[in-house]
Amino acid sequence: MSDFLEQISSQEYHESVFDALREQDGQIYDLIIREYERLQNTLQLIAAENQCSRAVLAALGSIVQNKTTEGFPGARYHGGCEFVDDIEILAAARAKETFGAQYANVQPHSGTAANQIVLTALLEAGDKILSLGLDQGGHVSHGDRVSFGGKFFEVQNYYVNRDTFVLDYNAIRDQAIEFKPKLIICGASAYSRVIDFKEFRRIANQVGAYLLADISHIAGLVIAGAHPSSIDEAHFTTTSTYKPGGPRGGLILMGRDYDSTISVSGKQIPLWKHIQRTTFPGVQGTPYLNNVAAKAVFFKETLSEEYRARQFKIVENAQSLSDCLVKLGYDVLTSGTDNHMMLVNVANFREGLTGVIAQKCLEDCGIVVNMNRLPYDTKSMAVASGLRLGTPIVTKNGMGAEQMQTISELIDEALNGVKIETNSQYSIDESLRSEIRNRVKQLCGRFPMR
Ligand code: DSN
Q1: Residues with CB under 6 A from ligand 1
Q2: Atom 6 of ligand 1: nearest residue by CA position
Q3: What are phi and psi of 427, to 5 degrees?
Q4: Helical H runs in 213-288?
Q5: Which of 391, 266, 294 is closest to 94 using CA atoms?
Q6: Ligand 1, pocket-test mutation among 110, 112, 140, 216, most atoms within 8 A of CB
Q7: What is the model's pLDDT at position 1?
Q8: Do domains 65-302 and 305-446 have the same CATH topology?
Q9: E-only strand ranges, 49-168
Q10: In CATH terms, is domain 305-446 a member of 3.90.1150.10?
């Protein structure tokens, strides 16, 4: 018998991938199966989550993952790049098409990495950033003191209005004039109203600052036109690619400012080229090319009518869920939403109820959400007064207004039924828990993962 294995086709090779996992590592295989069942049988309402297609998963799990290189297509540091170069060129071209951008960098490993690249490209240690505070709905990578940005730069935060919980652009302008930041960051992780990118650019222009828009949460809506675009307003737009429904990863986009110049070591170079060089060798090493391939697959999907229509439906569903909760007596911040998420002040719903209790008791009942500190929250991050709910996944699975009403009732039954013991401890009757859980399972059974 020959010692050599017969070469099999790419089709057979890739089709055998999951079987190989089952044979070689039953423990991880079983945990993946259990995660699949969890997703199928419980309601996914985390605003930062989405569900990629099987085609995206296939690209992620392909042999492209084995390719090591550095640099960009046409200027790599390793041989054998002819196919991965084409993959990256296609991914960048599709990203530009879907966002209407002039430049796309598909290499950032995450949204946070994309922000780190932009900050590193623009700022020297000690330079000033003005951004929305984490406790106001901002993101940790926008210069929070626990992040790299907070460590190396002088960061001041702007706030939402204390009464309306909406951004006050006049106050932000006054603050910018006084603080004189080199970079203003807009975009949020927990903010349910439209962000006025035009107004942010006017403020940035007035104080001579660059503007970075991190649209991670609303990227799908921006693609579809369900939220105004930042691409030609901000100097740089960043996003994670999983929130709008693609693979994990990040993206840097530029619109009309892509070829304006910046002085680097005494030489004027185009901004896009500076971003390229800061990505590699500045911040990241080898790109995850399987992930770049998966991004390309996802960007193609976003060009479809189905994807675009779904983004409007996501907003419609968020508005329905928010309206139902308000009718049931919940304090939804800003009384509603313009996007895919809503923030609910559960502490105002029932004496003693906190975000952490609400999150945990809902999870016991099969409803997966995350607690959220609200602007001006008096509770700690570990306890919080709020919940953040989002509709991308339930919408992807085909749910509509009728199901949003059912979800609001299920949430309400759980939050009314929970027995509060301390600000983080609770109990829930087993009969109530299993009754809600069964109804959740039945609902999810009618709208399985697509
Ligand atoms: N940015 C975090 C969130 O919004 O939950 C993780 O994506």
Answers
A1: 48, 139, 189
A2: 48
A3: -140, 160
A4: 219-224, 271-277
A5: 294
A6: 216
A7: 55
A8: no
A9: 71-72, 75-76, 103-105, 128-132, 154-158
A10: yes
Separation between Cα atoms, residue 352 and residue 421, nearest integer Å: 8
Q: How far is the CA of 46 from the centre of ligand 1 (A)?
A: 9
Asked if 420 and 361 touch (Cβ cutoff 8 Å), the reply is: no
Residue 240 CA, ligand 1 centroid: distance in Å: 10
What local confidence, expressed as pLDDT, does residue 319 receive?
A: 98
pLDDT of residue 4: 81
Name the residue at shortest CA distance from atom 7 of ligand 1.
Answer: 48
Helix axes 289-302, 82-99, angle to 10 degrees: 40
The predicted pLDDT at position 5 comes to 83
> Among the atoms of ligand 1, which is closest to the Cα of residue 139?
1
Amino acid at 294: A
pLDDT in tens, 389-419: 999 999 999 999 999 999 999 999 999 999 9
Separation of CA 343 and ligand 1 centre (Å): 14
**H/E run at residue 238:** strand 236-240
Q: Which ranges of the chain have pLDDT less than 70? A: 1-2
Which of 140, 130, 215, 160 lies closest to 343, judged by CA? 160
* 292 C-alpha to ligand 1 centroid (Å): 21
Question: What beta strand segments (E) does 125-214 contain?
Answer: 128-132, 154-158, 183-186, 210-214
**Model pTM?**
0.97
Ligand 1, atom 5, residue with closest C-alpha? 48
What residue spans of 180-266 are helical by DSSP H?
197-207, 219-224
Question: Where in the chain are the domains?
Answer: 65-302, 305-446
Q: How far is the CA of 361 from the centre of ligand 1 (A)?
A: 21
Centroid of ligand 1 to alpha carbon of 190 (angstroms): 9
Largest CA distance in the chain: 81
Nearest CA to ligand 1 atom 3: 48
Q: Among 272, 241, 279, which Cα is nearest to 254's?
A: 272
Q: What share of the chain is helix, strand, coil (3-state, %, to 5)?
A: 50, 15, 35
65-302 folds as: Aspartate Aminotransferase; domain 2 (3.40.640)
Report which protein residue has its CA nearest ligand 1's atom 1: 189
Two tokens at 195?
């962000």
Rounded distance between C-alpha atoms, residue 26 and residue 18, angstroms: 11
Pick the atom of ligand 1 nearest to 240's CA. Answer: 7
CA of 217 to the centre of ligand 1 (A): 8
